[in-house]
Amino acid sequence: MSKQRESVLPIAAACCPPLAVAPLSGEQAADLAPMFKALGDPVRLRLMSMIASTDEVCVCDLTDAFDLSGPTISHHLRVLREAGLVDSERRATWVWYRARPQALKQLAGLLDIATPAAV
Amino acid sequence: MSKQRESVLPIAAACCPPLAVAPLSGEQAADLAPMFKALGDPVRLRLMSMIASTDEVCVCDLTDAFDLSGPTISHHLRVLREAGLVDSERRATWVWYRARPQALKQLAGLLDIATPAAV
DNA sequence: GAGCTGATTCGAGATTCGTCAAGACAGGGA
DNA sequence: TCCCTGTCTTGACGAATCTCGAATCAGCTC
């Protein structure tokens, strides 16, 4: 991530109507599934929530919150980054992570239920 | 699924504020991650969209839509079912699947972005 | 009851994933 | 310049996942 060329992300590729409105094509599903998959691990879901609930987070703070090794946290952050859910930026010694609201919004829209009364 | 006792699902366990509002606890993340994980496979994501976009779908129709064997489709449907995302019901010879709007709504709420202006 | 159709479960093989230890790289301070 | 701190990458291993064929179960029709 030292290189910022990952700004070309799979986000724009998929912009679909809610699941409850129309079925996805195979291609759309293949584009979107990695995002859900990235959130499908408890550690990554918690990392995502920690990153999204503040403006920026330092890796050092994230590492301290888990009983996992540094490389493991780094690996999970990389998965989130490659899924387009977060951005990273090196600033002096530390690396800071920031959420990508676009991506979260896209997933939320996909899961939106057309019938609010449905229970 | 022949037995309907799976109606006791992990849904009620987790009911959390949006990711962008407060970080998840380890327990909350462990409850929610399986749902995202279930949607993290292209085949399952497409199955979910096919089920959610109509009232009910017969397994036979789902199987026909993929180049996969029956047991494989059955496996993916089981994952969706155990994650609490769909319900199944046997009616005569056929088994019908239905989405659980509660679950989709919960996930959508979790991904909701507090700042609609954010881009 | 016998036979048929549809769906699930079981068992096995190949692939992917999660984790860590060791090494490499980037940047700041003496 | 050299060393130290902090982070990422690489390589490796066990565990979980995806897929299929074969066998099993559920229900209808004759």
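qc> Residues 26-106 of chain A form a domain with the Arc Repressor Mutant, subunit A fold (CATH 1.10.10.10).
qc> done
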